[in-house]
Inverse folding.
């Protein structure tokens, strides 16, 4: 597992480590896809707006089929699976073509399974103990979830000193308005957000709106 960020290469196909996800842009869209026929146009709309990394959550019956369709027909996009809860989820996601996995929490079993599969994992954490456990297993880049419920900005600021060797992708309750505040923190590499793909726009096939939201998201990172 990576200990230092690696720059994005010219092709997403060279993605090797979870922290590389942050080098493609400030926001990873968190996608809940209800209809498999929406998967490809949604991915294309986000990509047209500059978003190259997509998290498709395993929360619907069509999620794996959606990942497979995007992976097969839009290989320039780095598609991964979210809400990965078990070794079985990780295996099915990898077989569908997922390039990375994101979990809401962390277990050693899941970490070992993803390593065995060659599937980069961005593990979720909600407590200092979870960070310590995952760090001991070699992870240094974490999803803070659910960020806003847990304390958000204040929690990340408090963790900056005791956990100075790790960084975060906060997800959960973050909006276009609050994302820049998170991205301004030195221990935040990127954020996850569902606002890039509003359910109403997806169901209506308003792909132009989603492309515009993607463009706006790509411009959110403040200067360091």
């Amino acid at each position: 597992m990576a200990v230092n960020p690696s720059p994005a290469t010219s092709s997403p196909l060279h993605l090797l480590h979870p922290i590389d996800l942050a080098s493609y842009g400030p926001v990873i869209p968190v996608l809940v896809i209800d209809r498999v026929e929406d998967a490809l146009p949604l991915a294309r709309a986000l990509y047209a707006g500059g978003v190259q990394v997509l998290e498709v959550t395993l929360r619907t019956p069509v999620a794996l089929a959606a990942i497979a369709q995007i992976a097969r027909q839009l290989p320039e996009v780095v598609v991964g699976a979210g809400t990965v809860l078990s070794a079985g989820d990780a295996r099915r996601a990898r077989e569908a073509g997922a390039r990375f996995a994101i979990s809401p929490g962390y277990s050693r079993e899941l970490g070992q399974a993803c390593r065995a599969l060659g599937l980069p994992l961005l593990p979720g954490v909600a407590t200092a103990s979870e960070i310590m456990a995952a760090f001991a297993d070699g992870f240094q880049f974490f999803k803070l979830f659910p960020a806003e419920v847990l304390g958000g900005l204040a929690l990340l600021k408090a963790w900056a000193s005791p956990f100075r060797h790790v960084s975060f992708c906060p997800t959960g309750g973050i909006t276009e308005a609050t994302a820049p505040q998170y991205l301004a923190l030195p221990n935040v590499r990127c954020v996850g957000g569902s606002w890039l793909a509003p359910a109403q726009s997806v169901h209506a096939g308003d792909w132009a709106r989603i492309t515009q939201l993607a463009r706006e998201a790509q411009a959110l990172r403040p200067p360091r």
